[in-house]
Amino acid sequence: MPEPLLQVTGLSKHFGGHRGLVARLGGVPAPRLVAVDDVSFSIARGEIFSLVGESGSGKTTLGRTILRLVEPTSGHIVFDGTDITTLRPAQLRKARRQIQMIFQDPVSSLNPRLTVRQMLGEVLRVHAVRPASQVQARIAELLALVGLPADSIDRTPKHFSGGQRQRIGIARALAVEPRFIVADEPVSAVDVSVQSQIMNLLLDLRERLGLTLLFIAHDLSVVRYLSDRVGVMYLGRIVEVGSRDQLFSAPRHPYTRALLSAAPRPDPNHRATIAAITGEPPSPLNPPSGCHFHTRCPLATDLCRSVAPLPELVAPGHEVRCHHHDHAAVTA
Amino acid sequence: MATVLGTAAGTVGTSAAPPILDVRSLTTTIPTARGTLTVVDDVSFAVAQGECFGLVGESGSGKSMTLRSILGLIPPPGRVASGEVRHAGRDLVRLSQRELNRIRGREIAMIVQDAVSALNPVYRIGRQIGEPMLEHRIVKGARSARARAVALMAKVGIPAPEKRVDDFPHQFSGGMCQRVVIATALACDPGLLLADEPTTALDVTIQDQILKLLVALQRDLGLSLLLVTHDMGVVAQTCQRVAVMYAGQIVELVRTDALFRQPRHPYTAGLLNCVPRLDGPAVRLKPIPGAPPDLAAPPSGCRFHPRCPLATEACRSQRPELVEVAPGHFSRCIRHHEMPPDLWKRLDA
Ligand SMILES: Nc1ncnc2c1ncn2[C@@H]1O[C@H](COP(=O)(O)OP(=O)(O)OP(=O)(O)O)[C@@H](O)[C@H]1O
Ligand SMILES: Nc1ncnc2c1ncn2[C@@H]1O[C@H](COP(=O)(O)OP(=O)(O)OP(=O)(O)O)[C@@H](O)[C@H]1O
Ligand SMILES: [Mg+2]
Ligand SMILES: [Mg+2]
């Protein structure tokens, strides 16, 4: 197997807890929250890897850790052979040209006072990606790449629709010619008729520029159209990871199956085949013992309540954290 | 099931029994610095007794403004410019705010997307749910209001209601807050519930629970439901009939199964064609080109014509009406009879 472009091993991120400054000063520590819990996965060159999970499962935190916009508590992130968790600021700046991020909210992630020309010009200058003489040509090239009309160059964000703003965000991320993009819910805030435009754009860019993508979403059907491989997160842990077909055609974790069953289908004749999941997601400040999912799981036993399952390989490239994944397969 | 017949005297999609809500040619305008926006444009539909009727459309298509117009909740200087909203023999558009106050929460209740902000943070849950009962005098005194609140909490699936009735909203999750909001809406036994994206802010497993709750309430209490959503999946799974909105107008109205089987407006067809699905081949989607129009400068003629593969000169110049193209099936497209089934599939993305 070729060496992956990104290799994440044992990555954790804790917020709060008593290691902080507050505690040392004798104040009351914020309660500890494990946002990302011992996560390992890898992404091959040119692949689109998606993370799905409900609100608060740790997707954004994980994505931001890869850019070191959030410092990991422990674990390693190796990008193209370099461990970026140990990079010093100067080296990190260089690495950040390779890794860019696209955000969910195209409105708040763009400076409302800058025109597209100013915004992209600044990125190109700061990173000195192109000589000054070529900056204008590169801006025009970027607009064409993301499908924005050439005359949008001197407009500010408020003169664009939501979908067009998302294209500007993508152009900004592409400006520095990254090899890897973390796209954090880039289609969640846009309308359906525009969503598929952005999805197709991401697929095209992967093809044309050889990009590798970490795509974050909570909508499984979107993930299905975009991904080569998928990881499902629940309360900070990746509970199942596999190829798109494995995840959607032969899901083995009861949570993955519950997610698939709960998604409303645009088909009046569709009837759910498995019982709806009951209960609420537990508080991340006080996650259940053992397997985090046991409080809502139809298969839970005493073992699940006491022992956290480790990732088990159930097929090549298909890993599941469930004590009862065999049973889950039978009842699927 | 409510059978859906044709138009009668301007009523769109009425059933044999008189509808619980009959909206006729409703038009709402908002004056702005950029000109007067027609945010609800000649909207007509009727909700049958006991039916769940869906209003679906993309952001800015006028779904929320339609609901607000029905209940007289358009913030000035916006106003209902024309049309009727018939309910229980009255035209709500002509009622005073005082008269509407007696109907809102009593005969027609509304639930909104953001449950957390819909609740008063300093009121205990029992008081939130009890307040409309006291206001509309359907119970005598705080004690019976509280008892009924506990019963309603149980009905909407809040565990241990007698323990939680004295909690504050911040002690509830988003999904539980939405249950509280639903319990509050049910407090006075309304016949009609207007629900504006009641599950959009929720996680998919919780959305599933809340939608099932609404369907069960509709069935068990004989409630009629007007459900606003932008999600075709939610429509397919909860609504008997549906109206599709685009740029302030209803462009198609029909029974849900027929909408998905044979859409008769190019916009609906395009929308269904670009919805990502969990089954079938995961091939590249065919988007609708462009974006919904700016209401300050709406396109001439048919508002969808700049994005429509069927558009002709007539579409650019004539304003299409919502017409019955098959029994109970309404479309605002002059070329509805020429729509090939693979209209969007033939286009290159
Ligand atoms: N800076 C922070 N300080 C404390 N807790 C945080 C911080 N950032 C995130 N969290 C917590 O970490 C957990 C994971 O949050 P995260 O935003 O990564 O989830 P997510 O999966 O992206 O959710 P969503 O789908 O809502 O975007 C949540 O419980 C969140 O409240
Ligand atoms: N106070 C206001 N002033 C001016 N225009 C407004 C105002 N409120 C809403 N609008 C406009 O009215 C139109 C309809 O808005 P409405 O809120 O009904 O849309 P919607 O279909 O509910 O969309 P969403 O799915 O985003 O909730 C939009 O174009 C919106 O920009
Ligand atoms: Mg997030
Ligand atoms: Mg709305």
List keywords for this structure.
heterodimer; A: 332 residues; alpha/beta; Rossmann fold; eight-stranded mixed beta sheet; globular; B: 349 residues; four-stranded antiparallel beta sheet; 12 helices; 12 strands; 31% helix; binds adenosine-5'-triphosphate; binds magnesium ion
Give an overview of the whole structure.
The complex is a heterodimer of chains A (332) and B (349). In chain A, 33% of the residues lie in helices and 21% in strands. With 332 residues, chain A is of the alpha/beta class. Chain A has a single domain, classed as Rossmann fold. An eight-stranded mixed sheet of chain A has the order 6-7-8-3-9-10-12-11, with helices on both faces. Chain A has a four-stranded antiparallel sheet with strand order 2-1-4-5, covered by helices on one side. The longest helix of chain A has 18 residues. Chain A is globular, with a radius of gyration of 21 Å. The two termini of chain A are 31 Å apart. With 349 residues, chain B is an alpha/beta fold. In chain B, strands 6-7-8-3-9-10-12-11 form an eight-stranded mixed sheet, sandwiched between helices. Chain B has a four-stranded antiparallel sheet with strand order 2-1-4-5. In chain B, helix 4 crosses helix 5 and helix 4 packs parallel to helix 7. The chains are: A alpha/beta (332), B alpha/beta (349). Chains A and B meet through helix 6, helix 7, helix 8 and helix 10 of A and helix 8, helix 9, helix 10 and helix 11 of B.
Structure in a nutshell:
Chain A has 12 helices and 12 strands.
Bound molecules: adenosine-5'-triphosphate, magnesium ion
Major beta sheet of chain A, specifics?
Answer: 8 strands, mixed
Assembly form of the protein: heterodimer
Rg of chain B over CA atoms, rounded to whole Å, is 21 Å
Describe the largest sheet of chain B: 8 strands, mixed
Given the helix and strand composition of chain B, which structural class is it? alpha/beta
Helix content of chain B: 25-40%
What does the overall shape of chain B look like?
A: globular
What count of domains describes the coordinates of chain A? 1
Proper CATH architecture of the largest domain in chain B: 3-Layer(aba) Sandwich
The N- to C-terminal Cα distance of chain B equals: 40 Å
Instruction: Assess the beta-strand content of chain A as a share of residues.
Output: 15-25%
